[in-house]
Amino acid sequence: MAMVTFMSHDGEQHEAPLEEGSSLMQVATNNAIPGIDADCGGEAACGTCHVIVDPAWADKVGRSGPEEEEMLSMNPERQPTSRLSCQVKVCESWDGLTVQLPEFQM
Amino acid sequence: MSSGRAVVVGASHAGVQLVTSLRREGWSGEIVLVGDESALPYQRPPLSKAYLAGKCSLKELAIRSEDFYVKQDVERVTASVQEIDRSAGELVLRTGNRLSYDALALCTGAHPRRLRAEGAELDGVHSLRRSSDVERIREDAIPGRNAVIVGGGYIGLETAASLRSLGLHVTVLEAADRVLERVTAPEVSAFFTRIHQQEGVDVRTNASVEALVGDTRVREVVLASGESVRADFVIVGIGIEPTIEIAEAAGLVVDDGIVIDAHARTSDPDIVAAGDCTSQDIPRYGRRIRLESVPSAVEQAKVAAATICRHDKEVAALPWFWSDQYDLKLQIAGLNTGYDDIALSGDLTRDRDFTCYYLRKGEPIAADCVNRPRDFMTTKRMLTQATAVDMAALTAEVAV
Predict the structure, then answer these.
(1) Is there a single domain that holds both residue B249 and residue B334?
(2) Which of B17, B49, B120, B122 falls 20 to 30 Å from B66 in CA-CA distance?
C-alpha cells in the first residue's frame, strides 16, 4: 500500500496509508498522527493542520491556494512548501511522500 | 491510572477527541465510546451548510474513519445512558444493562431549545442538531416551497443560505430587533441582514412567534403583531441547551452546564466532562462560560484525557468560532463579551469582506472576520500571545 511519512519537529516518524480521495488531514487524523490537530475538521478555517511538504514532492502535491495562503501567511513556521493538509487530496501514486510537521499548530 | 475501562458518554466532537487523546496520553486499558446515534461520529457544523445543501454525504462527515476505532482499539457502543451509579462505578443504560467504568468522561452535548408557542408540535416543524433532523428537512426542502426559519442566529442564517441555494423561498423571523443580536455588534448584524436580503431572504426582526397553525401539518406562522407568514415547513433555531440530566441526577454540580475546572474535572474529581454540555471558569474573561464551539470541545477533551491519565494539562486556548453563509466565511477570534468599542476595517454597507475588532478599554478582545482569513489568523495569534497592538495599523486600509 502507498504510504506517507509524517515527520515531527523533533524527528519522530509516523507512517500512514494513502487512501485515494481522502485529504492528507484525514489520513493523519484517521491514523492518530500526533501534531495534526485539525480543529475545524477540514474547512480551512483554523490553520491547525499545517504541514511542510518535502520540496521534492511540492509540484506533485500542488501549491497552496489563495485562501490557504492567507491562513498560512501569518505563521512564523511557514515554509515555501507549506500547505494546510485539509486542502490536499491525496493520490495512491504518492507512495513515499514525506511531510514535516511544525513545532506548533496555531 | 492508565488501565482499566475508560467510558466516554457522547460520541461527537468532544467524545471522539477524548478517545483519541486517551490513547495518546497512554491509556492502555479498554476504551468504550457510548453514543445514541448509530452512524460513525460525524461533524455537526456542516449539517446546516454542506449537508443540508446536499453537497456531501454523512460518510464524508465522519470525524474519524471506521478503521480508526479498530486501530485505536476503541469500542463503539450505541446506547442511551439512563443513569450514572457513582457508588457502584457503573452506567445504567436505557436497556437496563449496566456498564462499569474505572474512568468516566461526560460529553453529552446539547439539544435544541424548544419553541414555546402553540402548534410547535405540528408536522413540518423541525429543529437542526442531528443528521436525522437534516434528512427530514431535506425531504421538505423542495424548490419553490416556503421555508420559515425561527431564529436569526448562526444556525438560522446558515440554514437560510443553504435553503436559498436549493431554490426555496426563505423567511427568517428574529424576535430581537436585529439578527445575531446576542453575539455581534449592530454593524455586523446590519451587514448580515443586507447580504441575506440581497440573496433574496425575507429577514424580519422584532418578529416573535405567537403560534404555528395547521391541521396536522404546519401551514402558517402567526406573529405577535398579528401578521401571518405562509410556511410549507418551519425550522426552529433559537439556541441550544446543555444536556445535563444524567449529570444532575448523579449529584454533579450543574450551573447552565456541567461545571468543570481548568483540568476538565467535574465536582466529582473522578469524572471529567468536555464540550457543549460544560460550563467553565475562563480566567481570560473572569467568569464562568458555556461555550458552544467545536474548537472548545476539542480543547477541553484533550485536557480531560490528560486528567484521566494523571497528566497535568489546563484549558488555555483562545475560544474561536466559524460560520459559512453563501460565499462568506466568517471566522471569529475570541469572545466579545464586555466590549465597549469597535474598530472596523472595510465598508460593511457595501463590501463582502471586513473585520470588526471588539475593544475593551482600548485593548482588542475579539474580532469578527468575514472573508479575511489573514486578519483572523493575526488576531487569533495576537490574542493568544497577548502581544501589544497598534489598532491604527490593524484597521488601516492596505492594498494586499
Answers:
(1) no
(2) B49
For β-strands B202-204 and B169-173, DSSP reports them as: parallel
Same domain, B245 and B229: no
| Residues B304 and B331 grouped into a single domain | no
Q: Which three cell numbers stand for residue A19?
A: 487512501
Could you say which of A30, A41, A70 has the minimum Cβ distance to residue B43?
A: A41
> Quick check: B332 and B321 in contact, CB under 8 A?
yes
Domain C-terminal end among B265, B280, B308:
B308
Query: For residue B31, what is its C-alpha cell?
Result: 476504551
CB proximity under 8 Å: A 60-99 to B: 67, 70-71, 73-75
Number of compact structural domains in chain B = 3
Q: Is residue B200 part of a domain?
A: yes
- What ranges do the domains of chain A cover? 3-100
User: For residue range B289-320, what is the model confidence (pLDDT) as tens digits?
Assistant: 999 999 999 999 999 999 999 999 999 889 99
Contact predicate B86/B98, CB 8 Å: no
Dist. CA B212–CA A46, nearest whole Å: 40
CB contact under 8 A, A29 and B64: yes
> A71 vs B320: CB contact, 8 Å cut-off?
no
Residue in B with minimal Cα distance to A44: B373
- Set of chain B residues whose Cβ sits within 8 Å of the Cβ of A44: 373
Residues B129, B276, single domain; the answer is: no
- Report the C-alpha gap between A25 and B355 in whole angstroms: 28
pLDDT digit string (tens) for B186-237? 999 999 999 999 999 999 999 999 999 999 999 999 999 999 999 999 999 9
Complex ipTM: 0.92
| CATH at residue B102 | 3.50.50.60
SS3 A23: strand
Burial of B277 (0-12, 13-18, 19+ CB in 10 A): buried
Q: Tell me: domain A3-100, CATH 3.40.50.720, correct?
A: no
Q: Measure A84 CA to nearest chain B CA, in Å.
A: 13
Whether residue B248 sits in one domain with residue B232: no
Query: Using CA atoms, how far apart are residues B355 and B184, in angstroms rounded to an integer?
Result: 12
Measuring CA to CA, which residue among B304, B299, B286, B292 is closest to residue B257? Answer: B292
The answer to whether the Cβ–Cβ distance between A45 and B374 falls below 8 Å is: no
**Gyration radius of chain A over CA positions:** 12
Which range marks the domain in which residue B97 is found?
5-111+240-308
Rounded to whole angstroms, the Cα distance separating B261 from B304 reads: 10
